[in-house]
Structure prediction request, 254 residues.
Amino acid sequence: MGVVDRLVTWARIKSPWILHLNSGGCNGCDIEILDALTPRYDLERFGVLLKGSPRHADVLLVSGPITKQVAKRFLRIYNQTPDPKFVVGIGACTMSGGVFRECYNVMGGLDGVIPVNAWIPGCPPKPEAIIYGVAALLGKLAGG
Amino acid sequence: MQFTWLENIQGFGWFLAAFGVILLIVLLLYWIGKRIAPSNPNKEKETTYACGEDIPGVKTQFHSHLLRYAVYFTIFDIIAFILATSMGIFGWVPLIYLAVAFVAILILRK
Prediction:
């Protein structure tokens, strides 16, 4: 990588702003995500800020099973997010539908709708697991 | 102490130079950002974000009769500012502005 690329990658790794999306789950993962952002676990020490618009976000944190109702909306939000963007699926529901798998309105995993860069398994994953997953994603980005 | 108009402009010279340098820096930062940003346009990026809903952009309603009040306010606000800053000092600029504002108000009244 050239000097400029390294500088840009360093800037992106040090301030990954996130948008939290829930696709209609039980909110267990949402609560754990919010816990990870509070001072006890403090995801913000990595430069992570929770934003309200995909226009400001680098990372989409998705929780909950992908329902038929929300699939096209997620795709629209993903397309509205500026590049470079990364998607992290949090919890078992984003991977396969979790406890809601094969329900009448559930499509399955998140990767059936949008490309996913990292998964954080759990039901719900603990804040430590979320922090580990985010740090692993940042490490992967640092490696190019 | 009275300054000539040339001395006034020279006094502002450093200010204008600093403003120009700052403007150049801002443009440089903007240009750098444009160069390094990835370009991957799609139709959705131009649309309004509405939590994923497909809502077309709606023009804001504007009541044109309120524009008259806004124009009146702007004229009198600037008259007050010019009078306050030129108090006790004779100048042609405030007089010319007052004359133009008087004509503008006469036209607006119609």
User: Anything to note?
Assistant: Chain B has two domains: 1-38, 56-110. The CA atoms of residues 48 and 56 of chain B lie 7 Å apart.
